[in-house]
Design a protein that fits this description.
The complex is a heterodimer of chains A (231) and B (224). Helix content of chain A is 58%, strand content 7%. Chain A has helices at 16-28, 44-49, 69-79, 91-117, 120-144, 159-168, 171-178, 189-199, 202-207, 211-226; strands at residues 7-11, 33-36, 58-61, 64-67. With 231 residues, chain A is α+β, with helices and mostly antiparallel strands. Chain B has a 4-stranded mixed sheet with strand order 2-1-3-4, covered by helices on one side. Chain B contains 9 helices and 4 strands. Chain B has helices at 14-26, 42-47, 67-77, 88-114, 120-138, 151-155, 157-170, 181-192, 204-215, and strands at residues 5-9, 31-34, 56-59, 62-65. Chain B has 224 residues and is of the alpha+beta class. Classes of the chains: A alpha+beta (231), B alpha+beta (224). The interface between A and B is medium-sized, with 22 and 23 residues. Chain B: Belongs to the GST superfamily.
């Protein structure tokens, strides 16, 4: 069923959520057109495709839009059966992937964003919670990856790897902007080594934006959050 | 090996009841353990050390947490009644709206019922905007799942039953028939459907009293 397989991704270059979809499409070898959205000035198409959230990413497959990054990843995996699977076959392992993807998203990424956007006491609290949750992940890595993470590569990487990269692939940028270590090989050696293995994979390396560009963007996000301009 | 399915839950929780609805629709035998949330059992903490919450499904000794993750697991493990649609696009649609309900509607509705009094009007307006999306999504369908109850109906159990409880407990009415005729219809059909009605919490008054004791008597309490 490859007759018409028009895939368009509406995105925004620094968005971790968009990054997930880009990685999934690249890993699966799915050709797609990319539309860079100007977020203060969203296209009318985007608003039509995602009227509920009006956000990126939106994947449009043969004219039909899908929103929410993890929903899109599952859709991609179910629709394109050739190429590596993003989720394992076994239902229990699939449940584990879904559980941990939700954990990475809700417990880690949301807190990391809060750390970027706050200061003083609020930031301290967010930092404490972020490290608490990172520690929980560290303690469970051997359950998630009983064989370890050293042999993860482009052919066998999956949804959880993609979500981790989107959350912390730019950890050096965070560390530069915030001035402290976020991914500490001494505090969370297993998470650190999982992440660094992933960052060596060619498709991942290509997908990460330039360090300087990201630093500027995160600085801008932080500044905007701490000193909001017009009311 | 004989199959063993355990469910750790709480009688008044929509999340817990979602799992029971799915198990019953599939005809799966299970053993239920009622948890006391003020005094969680060591077994629960062993099975869900990360979040320490219910519901937890334990299948042949292996635990699964998070109600939506559990529902996906149930549908993938046991054949019979299909909870998810077959088509990937419809599945994506169901997952999208399920996420919307848990991540946006629940907090929005909670805020409208029990948020700060001075934000009350805004919170009600926002909650109604969220419900409007669901009104549009149900459209002319009997169920969110089409002709039969599906994943999204089960996740929307909160809207189907607990919203009414929240409204009574807090005194804030959100789902009016005038503003939401289609969603109101769905609520009526949902709570009287076989497979659902037997699985709703009994003792409505007790549930209302419980939420009042947890969250107060509501944002519209200004004159009391």
């Amino acid at each position: 069923m490859a007759e018409e397989n028009k895939v368009i991704l509406h995105g925004f270059w620094p968005s971790p959520f968009v990054k997930r979809v880009e990685l999934a499409l690249k890993i699966k070898g799915i050709p797609y057109d990319y539309v860079e959205e100007d977020l203060p000035n969203k296209s009318s198409l985007l608003l039509e495709y995602n009227p509920v959230y009006k956000k990126v990413p939106v994947l449009v497959h043969n004219g039909k839009p899908i929103a929410e990054s993890i929903v899109i990843l599952e859709y991609i995996d179910e629709t394109w059966k050739n190429g590596p699977s993003l989720l394992p076959e076994d239902p229990y392992k699939r449940a584990e992937v879904r559980f941990w993807a939700s954990f990475l998203q809700q417990q880690l990424l949301q807190r990391a964003i809060l750390v970027v956007k706050s200061d003083g006491e609020a930031q301290e609290k967010a930092i404490e919670e972020l490290f608490e949750k990172l520690k929980l992940l560290e303690e469970r890595i051997m359950n998630i990856f009983p064989e370890g993470t050293a042999s993860i590569n482009q052919e066998n990487m999956g949804l959880l790897d993609i979500v981790l990269i989107s959350c912390f692939g730019y950890y050096k940028v965070l560390e530069e902007v915030l001035g402290f270590k976020v991914m500490d090989p001494e505090k969370t050696p297993l998470v650190f080594s999982w992440l660094t293995t992933l960052l060596e994979i060619p498709v991942v390396k290509e997908a990460i934006p330039s360090h300087e560009k990201e630093v500027l963007f995160i600085k801008y996000v932080r500044q905007n959050a701490l000193n909001p301009t017009a009311v | 090996m004989a199959e063993e399915v355990l469910l750790f839950g709480v009688w008044g929780s929509p999340f817990s009841r979602r799992v029971e609805m799915a198990l019953k629709l599939k005809g799966i035998q299970y053993k239920y353990f009622e948890e006391d949330l003020t005094n969680k059992s060591p077994t629960l903490l062993k099975y869900n050390p990360i979040h320490k919450k219910i519901p937890v499904l334990v299948h042949n000794g292996k635990p699964i947490a998070e109600s939506q993750v559990i529902l996906e697991y149930i549908d993938e493990t046991w054949k019979g009644y299909p909870i998810f649609p077959k088509d990937p696009y419809e599945r994506a649609n169901a997952r999208f709206w399920a996420k919307f309900i848990d991540e946006k509607c629940l907090p929005g509705i909670f805020n409208a019922c029990w948020g700060e009094e001075k934000q009350h009007e805004n919170a009600v307006k926002e909650a109604c905007e969220l419900l409007k999306h669901l009104e549009n999504e149900i459209g002319e369908k009997k169920y969110f799942g089409g002709e039969a109850i599906g994943f999204l109906d089960i996740v929307a159990n909160f809207i189907g039953f607990w919203l009414g409880i929240f409204e009574e407990a807090s005194g804030t009415k959100l789902l009016t028939r005038e503003e939401f005729p289609k969603l109101s219809n769905w609520v009526g059909v949902f709570v009287s459907s076989s497979g659902i009605k037997e699985n709703l919490p009994p003792a409505r008054d007790k549930l209302i009293a419980y939420f009042r004791s947890q969250f107060g008597t509501g944002s519209t309490d200004a004159t009391k």
